[in-house]
Request: fold
Amino acid sequence: MKTSPTTTRSTSSLVRISVDPVSPVGPLDPFWAGQIIHPTERLLTEEGQSFLRLLAEKGACRAGVRIYNQPEEAIRPGADGQFSYDWSRFDGMADQIAALGCPLKVVFFAMPYELALDPTSEKTRPNGAKVCISPPKDYELWRAMCADFMRHIMERFGEEAIRRWSFRCWNEPDLTHFWHEGNVTEYLKLYDYFADGVKSVCPEARIGGPALSANKIYLDPAPFIQFLDHITSGTNHATGTPGSPIDYLGIHTYGGKSGGPGHGRDYPDSDYMLEKQFRLRDIRNRYPTLRSVPIHVEEWGESSEGTTGIDRQPMSDIRNSEHGAAFLVNWVGRHLRLRQEGVADFTSFTFCASGYEIDRTRDFHGYRTLHTLNGFHKPALNGYALLAKCADTQVRCQADPDTLQYQVVAAADMNRITVVVGDYQPSRIQNDGPASSVTIVVNNPWSEVVNLTLRHWRIDANHSNAYSVFKTLGSPETPSPEHVHAITDRMSLELLEPERRLPEAAEWTLDFDLPCNGVSLIEIDRTSKESP
Reply:
């Protein structure tokens, strides 16, 4: 039975997708739905708490939320020269995340001034606040602090919850603005004492590192190799024994750099990001004892440097448009395909929404954010919402032609079939490439007589796209109440056409056009005809 949404068929590219809902591939684990709250202390504000609730509502943080544990705020020097810690500030932030059912990804950062070897070694945040990035003056004090934190959260949140969390030592220690002189050799010592402190309290705690900078390590992976050499065969600074414990390798990879394209590229794209991931994976595989250690991509995005906007890099405009949603769906589809092929190296991904830590003077500045100054949702956020609608079990599908341009996520459960398809054209940064003619053929898995409802969700220039409306209104620097109403009215996930009934048939053939960097979700629901 052929049924076509009311769209005009194009003659540009043709793709035919076959879906077999009764051929399961495995559970559809939402590995893509991890987020970073940046800066961490945003969770102490109503604006930050509202953002966390928005992420949960859109299904963007089901796999976890990353924050810093901020020991510099917890330390309490005593009159006797000893140190104690009050972790209640961390508790207040962690409680909000745990209440959503999300595991935490905790990064131990930064150094309390009272413990610092060089208190003048500082990072100045965009808001003017400073944090110390010095090594400790006594590594036993650092180990004791790490252990104190673990004892506290074990008592506060329980061992069962802590086993779902992950813990990492520091952030991008190869960069001078995150770690003293970018000295990775000194970082190895920091890691050893961190690992010993954490594991002394909870041996089952999942710990990782080194989370080096994405583009610097792409050009020169020597610091990454130095870390792997140390944890496999180096002398542990804390214990004196060979090697160091590690449960996952944390890496950062982006589709570009500084808001624009990557090294040797003309535009940001998912292929560049995956190339970096596999380059680091291949280095890991040189070490037989590490081949089973999973890789967590603990920062990703279309391009690095989240506070570079369109004023400095016009290409960062892709972070405003439907390009962001197409990027998300493309790499999700590619990693799902890799998993089907038995490639299970990458088990966790965390999006770095950065740009909230500086004053935003207008909407759609091109920062790596998911919503704007006035709360307008970006299409990338709708990409998460669309993926969150997928059924629970991935099922077999086939695209013809089978190219990287088209990624398909097909899933099913007892009463639903969902098919996500994206037409990703990364070189078309203005989203002005040709549309594609899509045909989806879905086998009917239900033998009994049922009511069938079809919904077609869409993200493109004309659907689920606050940015398009914003531009149509002249990109107002100060949106009027009328502007705000018009933009917010179109910023959430939208249907391409009104939902409608499907006829009973052995299979359904659905034809529609998919614009450049557009994403569609076909959702078929069934209910018994005896149901009210």
The first helix runs from residue 46 to 57. The chain has 13 helices and 23 strands. Residues 276 and 460 are 28 Å apart (CA to CA). Residues 2-25+390-528 form a domain with the Immunoglobulin-like fold (CATH 2.60.40.1500).
